[in-house]
Structure formats: C-alpha cells, structure tokens
Amino acid sequence: MIVSEELIDRYFTSLNETNRAHRRELIEKLWAENGKFISPVGEVAGHSAIDGQVEGFQKQFPDAEVRQTSEIEVLYDKYVRFTFEAVQPDGETFISSGLSPTANCSSSLDFSI
User: What is the CATH number of the domain that holds 50?
Assistant: First the structure.
C-alpha cells in the first residue's frame, strides 16, 4: 500500500482549520462517512461527530496547532501510524503522543489514537 503524505497532511489541515464550514468540507472529503475517531477524549463516528470533537478541542485550546512529528509507518498493508503533538501559540507542547495514532486507510480515513 502506498500512503500519500498528502492524505496525512489533509488530516492535520482538517484538525487545525478554524473556519467551521471549511473544516466540515475537509472532513467530508477526508473521512469515511461512518469513520471512527478514537482519542483520549472519547470515540466518535461520522462527519458531524468528528467535526464536533475537533471544534471542542479548538474551543478548549484556542489557536493551538496539531502537527505530525514522525514519519508515516505502514502496517499490514492496511494501516498507517505516526506520532503528533499539540502546540500552544507560544510554542509550548502540551500534548505529545507517546502512542501513535493508527489509521485504516483506503481513499478515506478511519482513525484510532
């Protein structure tokens, strides 16, 4: 399986997009319709729920940026994983993934963190 760096870049773009309508558009293009996003905050499924979880994170941490911190690793020709961090505007890292998120990739995403 060849995983496009662009796909993962689009994932991070959607997490950092603050314009609600544009973020929703990005999520709909990126995620499977019933895609599951599992994070320390909880598990959600579907575009609206994913958008809601991203929006909640952005409200809790205004102007924070989530970014990839490692190369993409492909597992079993079906999954990818990588590490990430969330950074405050002053550069302080307040979330650093010790465990990599895992994505079931085809043409869209289904993530577990």
Answer: 3.10.450.50
